[in-house]
Amino acid sequence: MIIDVVKITEESDLQKAWAIRKEVFVLEQACPEELEWEFEDESVHFLASIKGFPVGTSRWRQTDEGIKLERFAVLKNYRMKGVASVLLSRMLSDLIEKTQKIYLHAQLHAAPVYAKFGFEPVGENFWEAGIEHVKMVRKY
Predict the structure, then answer these.
(1) What are the backbone angles phi and psi of residue 112, rounded to the nearest 5°?
(2) How far is 88 from 134, CA to CA, in rounded Å?
(3) Phi and psi for 34 in degrees, rounded to 5?
(4) Which of 11, 53, 57, 114 is packed most tightly, with the most Cβ within 10 A?
(5) In this structure, is the dihedral angle defined by the CA atoms of residues 11, 62, 128 and 83, taken in order, positive or negative?
(6) How far apart are CA 53 and CA 34, in angstroms?
(7) List of E strands, 1-140
(8) How many CB atoms lie within 10 A of CB 64?
(9) Cα(96)–Cα(105) distance, rounded to whole angstroms?
(10) Residue 38 to residue 21: CA distance in whole angstroms
């Protein structure tokens, strides 16, 4: 299965990414909708597709602490097929020339995916939008 990931430059692709996030975070995980749409304009968004069908999305943004990767969402029927790993790999290649700290807040079940890319847990677990998370920082 070929997973294509593009950096979003078109409004139509951004709409597809938002539809995936609404499905995964707002409807499936019951995250508060007002939290889901923060920092949209300052983020760099990505869209993953299989045979032209949008199946996943993610974004990164600059924060005071460094570069934060966030909003990894994969449609339920496409999970455990490598979509998140391909998204993460593409995002990291986009950041290859950045020298700042790269970090994320991982839902606990997803932490092993990020660990494969050099992210390590830092600090105690915490709750965000009603879901347990762990902060992870890329060590190399």
Answers:
(1) -60, -30
(2) 17
(3) -65, -25
(4) 57
(5) positive
(6) 27
(7) 3-7, 43-50, 53-63, 66-74, 102-107, 119-128, 131-138
(8) 5
(9) 20
(10) 12
38: which DSSP letter?
T
Place of tokens 């060590």: 139
Go through the domains of the chain in sequence order and give each one's CATH number.
3-98 (3.40.630.30)
Residue with tokens 């920082």: 137
Number of other residues whose CB lies within 10 A of the CB of residue 47: 21
Residue type, 30: A
Instruction: Identify whether the C-beta of residue 66 lies closer than 8 Å to the C-beta of residue 102.
Output: yes
Q: Which amino acid is at 12?
A: S
**What are 56's strand-pairing partners?**
48, 74
Each residue's pLDDT tens digit in the chain (140 positions)? 899 999 999 999 999 999 999 999 999 998 888 888 889 999 999 999 999 999 999 999 999 999 999 999 999 999 999 999 999 999 999 887 777 899 999 999 999 999 999 999 999 999 988 889 999 999 86
| Amino acid, res. 117 | F
